[in-house]
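Appendix B. Chain record.
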Amino acid sequence: MASLSDETLRKILVQIQQTAIQSQRALNLTKQQTAAKDRERRILQLTIDEISGMEPDVNMYKGVGKMFVMVPRPEMEKDLKSQEKELTDDINGLNKKSKYLEKQFNDAQSQLRDIFNSAPRS
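Structure tokens predicted for this chain:
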């Protein structure tokens, strides 16, 4: 550490701090997105459960813009299940991204700790 100038050391510290801040912000955003997708998926699961409990001859309607269109039950169930699968895939992707960002944030924090712990005491 003694071979680095004060200016170079300061630039390194600023860069590590910025990495930590960016990782923390991205992590918070990713957690919010995960929570929103999970909420959507739970609502979709409830809808699927309600539809499966209905009689087979009940008419199903799907909202399209400002109107409702009658949709055959198998098509409605297929659409809902595909939306649920898509949301599950999105949640899994966001969880992976969240783990990566947590690791990046923890690495930046440990680098800062190492720098301050190895700094010469005056």
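Further analysis of this model is presented in Appendix C.
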